[in-house]
Amino acid sequence: MASAGIKILPCEFIDMEVRVDIYNEAFADDPALYCMRPRADPIVVKKNTLENFQKGYEGPGMKYFKAIDGDTGEIVGYSSWQYPHTPDPNEPDPETAIRNATQPPGSNDELIVEFLVKFLHARQKWHVPHLHYYLRLLVAHPGYQRRGIGTMLLEPVLEIIDEAKAKTFITASPVDVGLYLKYGWVEVDEIIIDYSRYGDEKDVKTAVLMRHPKGLRMSKNGTAKRQT
């Protein structure tokens, strides 16, 4: 059920700092977040994350939306989407950029590269930039989770996507998969990361999902069938 008093609006560039705070709080228990940079200065990590979010805000096809508590005016959730676009042919090779990037001191560089490259390969396998939509991230502040904010951030864009008769790519943790299955996504692949070398779980799964527009259902091999 959607939360009363919550408004959905486009994000502005100035909102990126709040977005970092919500991201860090929402994913505080995610092994990826704390295993990647366990000994790094939190101030440096936050600055690095903010710079990445600000750069992403201006990326091709990017659209950001925020959920605002109408009573307090605070941002309590957001989504970031990449709409179909033509990639810049002059952009550097993304895998090379990942491998050559300098991480903050105290980071587990090997894990960061493994994580980012595996997610990159999954995206390259399933996501066609000029045809598909990509839900990059959907996050609600921990104090506002299970209050329908995810639904409110999803539904307006899915209406646009269904009208365009386009597919949508996403990766999701097991705890979030249920919401996306409800809206027609189908798990087509998985990403496995071994965090046991860093003192955490051995094989953590992230689901790779694709969604056909409403009226079509998707099989696990990524093909579509007309719903009857």
Describe this structure as you would to a colleague.
- With 228 residues, the protein is of the alpha+beta class.
- It has one domain: Gcn5-related N-acetyltransferase (GNAT) (Aminopeptidase, 3-Layer(aba) Sandwich).
- Helix content is 36%, strand content 25%.
- The two termini are 27 Å apart.
Secondary structure blueprint with pairings:
Layout: E1 6-10, H1 16-26, H2 31-36, H3 42-57, E2 62-69, E3 75-82, H4 94-100, H5 109-126, E4 133-140, H6 149-164, E5 168-172, H7 174-182, E6 185-193, E7 204-211, E8 216-218, E9 224-226
Parallel strand pairs: 4-5
Antiparallel strand pairs: 1-2, 2-3, 3-4, 5-7, 6-7, 8-9
Protein name: N-acetyltransferase domain-containing protein
Region (Disordered): 83-105
Pfam families: Acetyltransf_10 (PF13673)
The general outline is globular
The CATH class:
Alpha Beta
Q: Roughly how many Å apart are the termini? A: 27 Å
Structural class: alpha+beta
In the CATH hierarchy, the architecture is 3-Layer(aba) Sandwich
Uncertain spans = none
The level of helicity is 25-40%
Give the key terms.
228 residues, alpha+beta, seven-stranded mixed beta sheet, two-stranded antiparallel sheet, 7 helices, globular, Acyl_CoA_acyltransferase, N-acetyltransferase domain-containing protein
